[in-house]
Design goal:
Length: 512
């Protein structure tokens, strides 16, 4: 079926917005670019906004296993959107069922995506219908949706024990939309920045839509959890008395969009499969760049900041990108060393805009990996989900005869050993420094949970090792000792895991 793409009709007395000419800011309709081909190499060489990684920087082994980046590069600022490049890549939403590489990935626009490509035109039509309505709508209109238990939970949104899984169920799967709008409204940012409520709500809906619900971990619930954690950090005395309203707005938006359109695989996978994103960003912070540019694409499509001066809007987009790029796990030691140096010298001055921005980066990094610092019931669920996503990537790599990435082989890894390593090499060093910066009850609570959770995984690991050792006689002489083995401690766990060795998951560590 032939699809006709009609450009929106704009009033003659108004200038044409740049984001209309660029179709979500991703494809520029100019003579210097090709609509149906790869980006012009000359354009790539002229990209501005350097984002580099020092190849001589030695990161911890565990961080390198999570995704090392050693290519110095420059990347552009123009936002790109997944649905704007149907001719360059596989559809992330079908990654786990259909996978191809190289030129075979090129395909036509799936029918299901047409409505997203035309969404900006529909938005212009709807804007004309709403043009006669008051600019500022009463903020209490949307509050009527927050009823019952969900509304009660929002009253305690600043608590560290906030159960995002329960909240997601109470909001019928709309936890990210509901939570983010509530926090922006609670801070008075909607009124302060004169944000159009219709545009804001539409932006949040599109953000939630662009998270992949079939990802076990990197989905909208994770984004909502990070946003709630970010709010907890913003409430800390050191930050609450220093941050500006613009800082808070950027912090919340960065938390909500920091993993936007995550494909459910890591950067190493995209690089070794020659994915177009890896080429576009030259193997440097590939996912984080994509999350940022996707977020900018939605901001421009919805026109959320279109009423602000162009320079201010562009500056907010750049700062948003700086926050999101800080979540690149391969740059963990780089940020941690800088943070530690500031704390050692005691030279952090939050009256400085650059220092406030750096603290926001560190806060977002903490929020992004704070799962091990949550109460055990919540932390365990997140651990199982992220491990399952690792294992799904490993299954895809095996299916297509690729080298299986570290931590992604379900036969040689368990939830426990992955989590213990992650806590030891990544989480503990970061949160120890955060506690130095903000020595509060919350910081001590997080470190307390971290220690208990690490001990719990260690106990499960030891229990599993013991049970596996006792099943070895069954594997070598099942006819001789079946009854005796079944009476030993841990035999039931070994039976449930198949008794295949010490690398199986412990009892109770499967998917929730």
């Amino acid at each position: 079926m032939e699809v006709c793409y009609q450009l929106p009709v704009l009033p003659l007395d108004r200038p044409v917005p740049k984001h209309v000419l660029s179709r979500r800011g991703a494809i520029s309709f100019s003579s210097s670019s090709s609509l149906f081909g790869a980006p012009d190499p000359r354009q790539l060489s002229q990209r501005r906004g350097a984002i580099s990684y020092d190849s001589s920087d030695q990161t911890a082994l565990y961080i390198r296993m999570l995704g090392d980046v050693r290519v110095r590069s420059q990347v552009g600022f123009e936002p790109e959107r997944r649905s704007s490049h149907p001719y360059l890549c596989i559809d992330f939403r079908t990654l786990h069922t259909r996978l191809g590489f190289g030129s075979s990935l090129a395909s036509s626009v799936p029918g299901g995506r047409v409505h997203r490509l035309l969404s900006f035109q529909r938005y212009l039509h709807s804007s004309r219908l709403l043009r006669g309505t008051p600019h500022q709508m009463p903020l209490h209109i949307l509050d009527e949706d927050y009823t019952g238990q969900a509304k009660c939970m929002l009253e305690k949104v600043g608590g560290w024990n906030f159960d995002i899984f329960r909240f997601d169920k109470l909001t019928n799967g709309h936890s990210l939309i509901t939570l983010t709008f509530h926090l922006l409204n609670q801070y008075g940012l909607v009124e302060l920045f004169q944000l159009d409520i219709v545009k804001l709500w539409r932006f949040l809906v599109m953000v939630q839509e662009d998270y992949h619900s079939d990802n076990p971990y990197h989905n909208a619930v994770h984004a909502a959890d990070v946003t709630q954690a970010m709010y907890c950090y913003l409430q800390e005395p050191t930050l609450s008395k220093s941050l500006t309203s613009c800082d808070i707005l950027l912090g919340l938006l960065a938390a909500a969009t920091h993993d936007l359109d995550h494909p459910g695989v890591n950067q190493a996978f995209l690089i070794k499969t020659d994915h177009y994103l890896a080429t576009l960003y030259r193997n440097t912070s590939v996912l984080e760049n994509h999350h940022w540019k996707s977020a900018v694409g939605l901001l421009r499509e919805t026109g959320l900041f279109s009423h602000l001066p162009a320079e201010d809007s562009l500056n907010m987009e750049r700062q948003l990108g700086s926050l999101i790029l800080a979540t690149d796990i391969s740059r963990q030691n780089e940020y941690l060393s800088k943070f530690r140096t500031h704390l050692d010298k005691e030279d952090l001055c939050l009256s400085s805009a650059s220092h406030r921005h750096f603290i926001l980066q560190m806060a977002l990094k903490c929020a992004d990996i704070c799962n091990p610092c949550r109460p055990w019931e919540l932390s365990k669920q997140w651990s199982e989900k992220v491990t399952e996503e690792f294992f799904q990537q490993g299954d895809i790599e095996k299916k297509h005869r690729l080298d299986v990435s570290p931590l992604c082989d379900r036969r040689t890894n368990t939830v426990g050993n992955i989590q213990i390593g992650f806590m030891t090499y990544v989480v503990e060093p970061l949160f120890a420094e955060w506690a130095r910066f903000s020595d509060t009850r919350l910081s001590q609570t997080m470190l307390g949970h971290l220690g208990l959770n690490k001990a719990s995984w260690g106990s499960l690991q030891q229990e599993h090792i013991s049970s596996s050792e006792e099943t070895e006689p069954r594997a070598s002489g099942a006819d001789a000792v079946p009854a005796a083995a079944s009476t030993r401690p841990g035999a039931a766990i070994a039976a449930d895991t198949g008794g295949t060795g010490s690398k199986e998951l412990p009892q109770g560590s499967g998917e929730s």
